[in-house]
Design brief:
This protein is mainly α. It is 72% helix and 0% strand.
Amino acid sequence: MAEVKDYKQLNGLALAYMGDAVYEKFIREYLLAAGKTKPNQLHKTATKFVSAKGQAVALKAMIAEGFLTDEEDRIAKRGRNAKSYTIPKNTDPGTYSMSTSFEAVLGYLYLAGDMERLQEWMEKALEIVEKGVEITNGTRK
């Protein structure tokens, strides 16, 4: 991995850019390890986790549980307050802002080299989103 100097100075969108890739890779590996191999099944299931809605739900629950450190809270706010001029048409600005916030923290942890805490974040998010899937669908998939 190439070292990103001054990662602490990156804006929220740059951190989210990195966090998006890190989380996507984590989810893909998780789904393959769970035995999901059909492309359509992989895509549909992955979308529940990596969608703006899934990430926003995870972050809100993590905040409510007091999961974030003070530093992570500051990074999350930096990500939430970042001004993006393109918002996906299927997402409201508040949800998109929260998902950017979530991704910014993941990007920050990754660039900081704090893989242990990054793993905790991704596992916690996975747990939260899976519970949401159970409630929504009535069964765990």
